[in-house]
Amino acid sequence: MKKITAAIITITLIAGLVLAGCGSNANEEKTTTAAKEEATTAAPSSTNYTGAGSYTINGVKIVPGEDFADALSSLGDPDEFSEAASCNYDGMDKTYTYDGFEITTYPDGDIDRIASLLITDESLESSKGIKIGASLDNITAAYGDGYVKSGSMYKYYADDDIYEYFFLLAGEVTYFGVAIDS
């Protein structure tokens, strides 16, 4: 059942990334730079998101926008791999699926840069302790209410491009991670 759920989430995410990369998202409630600035300053400073924009998985630091080569070498061969023509860049977007997490990259010349990290492992937690199954109340208690909402996704921007995100289904976090706007 866990593998079926992970497969459904993976397919949903890939479809979402393809659609997000190839067209505009009419459901995003706040899309301007001003809205992103508001998102990082709207909550009281004690609960504002000040995240570093990275996660460490199995001892490997994953930073959106960074070259994926060293992390790939450290993580080893993925359980699954897929690639598709990039909508935004010249080359192939790639998805590396491991047990409990997935890393997507985008091409930049001869290197692949990290676009996102998606976490589905119930034992892993966000930079502020949020896990699979948490509610929006749990998230706002940890991060504040300065999020940008896009459909069922709640984004907390670390800067203009990198954000930590939480996807809620039926009121609970089903996956979360960190990504970069492309």
Describe the overall structure:
There is one protein chain. This protein is of the alpha+beta class. It is 25% helix and 34% strand. Strands 3-4-5-6-10-9-8-7 form an eight-stranded antiparallel beta sheet, sandwiched between helices. A two-stranded antiparallel sheet has the order 1-2. The chain is globular.
Most strands sheet = 8 strands, antiparallel
Shape type:
globular
Helix count? 4
Oligomer: single chain
Uncertain residue segments: 1-8, 10-21, 23-51
Distance between the termini: 33 Å
Radius of gyration: 16 Å
> Could you state the order of secondary-structure elements as H and E?
HHEEHEEEEHEEEE
Number of strands: 10
- The share of residues in helices is 10-25%
Features:
two-stranded antiparallel ribbon, alpha+beta, 8-stranded antiparallel β-sheet, disordered N terminus, globular, 4 helices, 182 residues
SSE inventory with pairings:
Blueprint lengths: L1 H21 L10 H9 L13 E3 L2 E3 L6 H7 L4 E6 L6 E7 L2 E8 L2 E9 L16 H8 L4 E3 L2 E5 L4 E8 L2 E9 L2
Antiparallel strand pairs: 1-2, 3-4, 4-5, 5-6, 6-10, 7-8, 8-9, 9-10
Outline:
The chain has 182 residues and is α+β, with helices and mostly antiparallel strands. The protein has helices spanning 2-22, 33-41, 69-75, 136-143, and strands at 55-57, 60-62, 80-85, 92-98, 101-108, 111-119, 148-150, 153-157, 162-169, 172-180. A hairpin with a 2-residue loop joins strand 9 (162-169) and strand 10 (172-180).
